[in-house]
Design goal:
328 residues; mainly alpha; 3-stranded antiparallel beta sheet; 2 domains; hpI Integrase, Chain A; 48% helix
């Protein structure tokens, strides 16, 4: 069993009660998730659990040997390894989903993850967001970009003015960018397989169209199934650029331009999402509308992004009526 458990995340094998490899089960479980990102994450998280078993519980020789005590030990090990509560919960959820699948297939009689207490999802390192002034300055640096630079401009405008996630941006196709009743729209497949239709600002639509016009000017024939954001060059395969932008390229674009704008705190593409939510809340947009717009399942998740309103000058202490009354 240890030999199987030591496989890399991309080679994770599903064991049956006889500890034999079953490719059909593996295919059925992982391909039930539509998102390639989700499949990859689940593979990594489940494989990590089995590697943990192989290192610490060598007496476990099959699925039927796995007990709640092993899940508790895994949870505590993750916590002691300084994983964030959200990370721990995600890994437990991935394994719980896997064990539910095994119960459904009559390989197990119960899910050992059931009733395992999970850590509170307090954010240990909240995502840094940008102020409205910082974003305006960032945008000003992009105005004179031409040619391939229009890709960078379009990526940054789209992230900051829509609040979509990096994976959602990468998977945008031309067919997802449209006009309806005079409004510019993008249709995205959000986290959890949700289908969202978002209105985008006319300025963002103009920036995307400028970028698409550049692609056409280079001789590229654009098709509705093509990805909107694609690499401008491919050193390894120069002819193979009709593919989605690499996630690391999105990281580079955001970080490098923020650095040029004099923004030196830790910034990521997710900072654009936090900035979108924070700016909308600060400027009086209803919390529920924002939560629905960005595809959050709960307004509590949206509230976690709202760091701007935590200003000392807005403390309730300054609104106490009995301190405002003048003495007679």
């Amino acid at each position: 069993m240890n030999q199987i458990l030591k496989k890399s995340p991309t080679e994770l094998s599903i064991l049956t009660t006889k500890s034999s490899f079953n490719s059909e089960l593996e295919y059925e479980f992982f391909h039930n998730f539509q998102s390639p990102h989700t499949r990859k994450s689940y593979r990594i998280d489940i494989n990590q659990f089995f590697e943990f078993l192989g290192d610490h519980f060598k007496q476990v020789s099959g699925y039927c040997d796995i007990k709640r005590v092993h899940i508790v030990a895994f949870r505590n090990w993750l916590t002691d390894s300084n994983n964030a509560p959200k990370t721990v919960n995600r890994k437990l959820a991935a394994n719980s989903s896997f064990f539910d699948f095994l119960v459904e297939k009559n390989i197990l009689t119960f899910n050992p993850c059931t009733s395992i207490k999970r850590p509170r999802q307090d954010v240990l390192s909240p995502t840094n967001d940008l102020s409205d002034d910082q974003i305006a300055h960032l945008f000003s640096l992009l105005e004179d970009l031409k040619g391939p630079g229009l890709l960078h401009r379009a990526v940054i405008y789209t992230l900051f003015t829509t609040g979509i996630r990096k994976a959602e941006l990468i998977n945008l196709r031309l067919k997802n960018f449209k006009v309806q009743d005079g409004f510019n729209l993008i249709e995205i497949r959000a986290k959890g397989g949700k289908q969202l239709t978002k209105v985008i600002h006319p300025k963002c639509a103009q920036v995307i169209n400028d970028y698409l016009d550049y692609l056409k000017s280079t001789g590229d024939e654009l098709h509705l199934e093509d990805w909107i954001f694609r690499p401008s060059r491919n050193p390894i395969e120069p002819q193979h650029i009709i593919k989605p932008l690499n996630p690391k390229s999105v990281d580079y674009i955001v970080k490098s331009w923020c650095k040029k704008a004099g923004i030196h705190q830790k910034i990521s593409p997710h900072s654009a999402r936090a900035s979108y939510i924070g700016s909308a809340l600060e400027n009086g947009i209803d919390l529920y509308k924002i939560s629905k717009d960005v595809g959050h399942a709960s307004v509590k998740t949206t509230e976690e992004y709202n760091k701007r309103r935590q200003k000392l000058s807005e403390s309730p202490v300054f609104g106490l009526g009995f301190l405002k009354k003048s003495k007679k």
